[in-house]
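In response to the reviewer comment on reproducibility (Comment 2.3), we provide here a single inverse folding case reported in full, input and output, so that an independent group could reproduce the run without further information from us. The structure tokens appear first.
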């Protein structure tokens, strides 16, 4: 707790070695709700500031359910919170003085109260989009919903009808150079990425500017050049992909890149598992160059430990690993959210990722831009090349018409020692 008038320094409320997260103030100012895994799993806790002894109360006590994001209503009587269970995020409502029975409100998480206390909004995240849903708690409020691209971190209500200076965002023009008949109007070229290791990495003209802007933004947020080394960018149809990859991987379109596995193996990258129905996605967090707190934020979820599958436990092998027992300390940046801001979407893991590590493909991001794979390929290749990819031997055109060196496949570099990513400290030191 920190007095906003600067009259004194911060007061530490909790000192448990567990993770204490997501504090929420009672409107009356004498209680704080938060999430803690001090009992071995994330539960909803209440800190009563008027109690010097037995101050902390576990309100939920649900070992099989992970609670998140508590939020008091304007009166302090009710608390909304969300849960993760079986890959679904749900919003619940509980009376603080009687937490034994909670009421299910609906799907979504990170609930936010309307100032009247008569409605709740929640965020329903899809793999690449977010949906804002509302739930009326009285007949006076009608529910609504809206969909936005990317991911939402949270919401807050205002009672101001019109926010000065606000204007609806303009939708960018589609970068798809195809006409209504579906025929390719203009074939695009490839542009080599400058300063990226190894040399020769290239992207389509459509994705080049977005990648360059993303690389600069990520470097600013992290304090080091995370995207200065890649495992893969454009892969020609005649170049091999790792065994088990489908022929229609987005790396062939020039719109996708795979960041360096060396950074992940060195412990500078953490992957948090997120399930949406039957599909598994990964949220990527990258460790900042300075750990003084000026960059990034602490992690709030347990990353996935792929190596635990080799611990000798058959169950862990079958499930492709397990969550790390503790949340790694330090400061990280949500790379997945940053990439989405520049149009690069993550891809789901392939169905056999639990037994085949590269199939997790947590390091691949693609600028889909509303296209399907065939439409994206037609920006680079003639239709006959896509129908019989192995029979097509003509290289794609590049703006400079200069030959590009063929990089070593990323899956082979993963199997052999790799150099540290450019712009990072030497291995064995904090990035």
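Designed residues, in position order:
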């Amino acid at each position: 707790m920190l007095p906003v008038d600067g009259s004194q320094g911060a007061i530490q409320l909790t000192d448990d070695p567990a993770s204490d997260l997501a504090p929420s103030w009672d409107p009356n100012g004498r209680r704080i709700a938060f999430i803690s895994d001090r009992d071995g799993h994330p539960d909803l806790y209440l800190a009563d500031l008027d109690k010097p002894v037995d101050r902390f109360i576990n309100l939920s006590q649900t070992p099989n359910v992970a609670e998140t994001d508590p939020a008091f209503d304007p009166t302090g009587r009710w608390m909304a919170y969300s849960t993760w269970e079986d890959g679904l995020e749900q919003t619940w409502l509980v009376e603080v003085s009687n937490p034994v029975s909670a009421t299910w409100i609906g799907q979504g998480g990170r609930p936010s109260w309307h100032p009247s206390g008569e409605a709740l909004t929640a965020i329903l995240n899809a793999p690449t989009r977010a949906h804002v849903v509302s739930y009326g708690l009285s007949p006076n409020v009608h529910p609504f919903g809206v969909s936005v691209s990317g991911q939402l971190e949270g919401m807050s209500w205002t009672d101001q009808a019109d926010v000065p200076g606000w204007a609806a965002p303009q939708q960018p023009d589609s970068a798809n150079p195809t006409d209504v008949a579906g025929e390719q109007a203009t074939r695009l070229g490839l542009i080599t990425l400058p300063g990226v290791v190894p040399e020769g990495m290239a992207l389509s003209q459509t994705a080049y500017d977005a990648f360059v802007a993303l690389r600069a933004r990520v470097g600013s947020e992290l304090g080091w050049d995370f995207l200065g080394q890649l495992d893969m960018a454009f892969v020609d149809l005649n170049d091999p992909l790792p065994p088990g990859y489908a022929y229609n991987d987005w790396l062939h379109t020039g719109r996708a890149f795979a960041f360096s596995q060396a950074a992940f193996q060195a412990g500078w990258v953490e992957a948090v598992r997120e399930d949406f129905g039957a599909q598994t996605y990964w949220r990527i967090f990258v460790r900042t160059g300075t750990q003084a707190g000026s960059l990034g934020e602490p992690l709030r979820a347990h990353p996935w430990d792929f190596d635990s599958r080799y611990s000798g436990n058959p169950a862990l092998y079958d499930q492709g690993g397990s969550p790390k027992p503790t949340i790694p300390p330090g400061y990280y940046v949500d790379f997945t959210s940053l990439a989405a801001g520049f149009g690069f979407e993550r891809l789901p893991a392939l169905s056999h990722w639990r037994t085949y590590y590269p199939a997790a493909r947590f390091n691949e991001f693609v600028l889909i831009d509303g296209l399907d794979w065939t439409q994206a390929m037609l920006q680079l290749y003639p239709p006959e090349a896509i129908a019989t990819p192995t029979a097509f031997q003509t290289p794609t055109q590049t703006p400079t018409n200069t030959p590009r060196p063929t990089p070593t496949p990323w899956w082979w570099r993963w199997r052999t020692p790799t150099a540290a990513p450019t712009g990072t400290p030497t291995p064995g030191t904090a990035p």
